[in-house]
Amino acid sequence: MTPKVVLVTGVSRFLGGHLAARFAANPDIERVLGVDTEPPPRDLLRRMGRAEFVRADIRNPLISKVISTANVDTVVHASVTASPAGPTGRTVMKEMNVIGTMQLLAACQKSPRVTKLVVKSTSAVYGSSSRDPAVFTEDMGPKDLPSSGYAKDAVEVEGYVRGFSRRRPDVDVTTLRFTNFIGPRIDTVLTRYFALPVVPTVLGYDARVQLLHSEDALAVLERATLHDLPGVYNVGGDGVLLLSQAIRRAGRLNLPVPSAAVPTVGGFFRSARLVDFSPDQMRFLNWGRVIDTTLLRKEFGFTPRWTTQQAFDDYVNGRGLKPLIDPETIDAAERGILDAAARFR
Amino acid sequence: MAGARVIPLHDPERDAARRARHVEVVPEPEQQQSATPDWERRLTDLLSFARRRIAGDYQIDEFGFDRDLTENVLMPPLKPLYEKWFRVETIGLNNIPTAGGALIVANHSGTVPLDALMTAYGIASEHPAHRPLRGLGADLVFRTPVLGALARKGGQTLACNADAERLLSSGELVGVWPEGFKGIGKPFKDRYKLQRFGRGGFVSAALKTGVPIIPVSIVGAEEIYPMIGDIKTLARLLGFPYFPVTPFFPLLGPLGAIPLPSKWYIEFGEPIRTDVFGENAADDPMLVFNLTDQVRETIQQTLYRLLTQRRNVFLG
Asked: Is B67-224+259-309 CATH 2.40.50.140?
């Protein structure tokens, strides 16, 4: 069933904004509402076309009025985010994520017209440790519950969403657990991390990283909104990159940091405003995480267009990351050595 | 190759110049083999390996198994240990299927898990299909820096049912050492006495995926580091399951870390089929226990048989 009136949260960010733009381009949808606390950047707003921007805080009960007066029938909750707005933004981020979700769900529960809810969650809910199985399926839980940060927010958000679907069994709830996003256009903690000239990693560990191209992420969210596909789905690209391998593909140098010094180095990068890593993201860079996407393929009916490796290469090319050692130099060196060897024969 | 001198058909200098011009065009393998000496081919392989590593141009699977690295870097150093030091003899390698999932269950001994490495090397080098053995290791392995990362790159993963079933159902050859630390860290006087086989998790994984279980008996590994003592306090301090004392370690320091050159035998037994028990066989605890016992008994009896045939620990 194609929705009539769609409300998208978090439209001033990449995912929410581009999603609203896609809905606005769909003639079957009558009305698209985009909600966020701050207006989207100008180019994003232009892309959004006929979508209406509502400057509202989802932490405020006012959101209930928006939903009921506009006769919203489908809510896409895309504002749960991992990147804080600034050095002090972590508390605000948590409030936006958790309290915002509570308010939004309360508003949805109140409005009888809402028939579908799509929630952008994260595979961070599985946690990351040495005692975890190599690949997570949807029915697994974290070995130790994340104690802080985005992962904990996401676990709580999912808890509220489960509560909501118990109270409103008539609403189709789709929860999408995304891996980290990558792509030439999206800006996340990870894209900033790989763009550093020298990339710090944890000494002696090599995380397995699974990525999803941001265009695939948009396509999945769009599909979940336009079709009735309730359930919890893992969403990630095919294949896995090792962190060290990804850094080499980006042509960067990695700087192994002993795990005892990781918080100090992380603090340095935060105060230098380069990359803001939370402890759970650092744990991710230590152990990595891979999810099983069989359900996404079989039941949700979506196969990502980019594999992890292709998505990463697209990001590297799109950002114009120049490798520190030119591949041509390496080729020339290889040729030179072989020629010298041929002469010795 | 050095003795077999190849008489060049062409002028070698012109040949080299031609090669330099067309370096991208890979010459046909047969031609190259007759015209290029062995060391040069090896150099070419080495350089292309180095280029792949620098560019990050290789594939790993979802468990972190890096085939390129394993075959070129991790496995070669085991060759002298396998062939010259322990002089490993394998028996019944044909019991391992050339394709499809199978579960290898072996006894564990020797203070340091060299038996797992030797089994993996033996299968990779001597089995006709050269299959990689995907071992299931303890949590401690993956928690340890460097070792954990290397273990994953070498194809190992955490010993848990989810991983075991995933590997088996995707047709991999999986290895388990169900005795775990109880087996590998047992005192020398208990050598070749099998310890408890965990909770039989490996059997239920095999039952669920319907793959055969291949019992493996390893003789020789018990004698590489005869453990005559265990400093429990030090082990607790360092977070190890045991801190071994052998006749030479820690007495001789790093010299004591050299394993004794015992002669090894690895016997791969008849596969035990698990696909004959029907649908929900894994939910039948009695069946799981019985199968676990059957596997354990098979390994124990084979160990005794191999030991009676062995006349000398070091000469075989």
From this structure: no
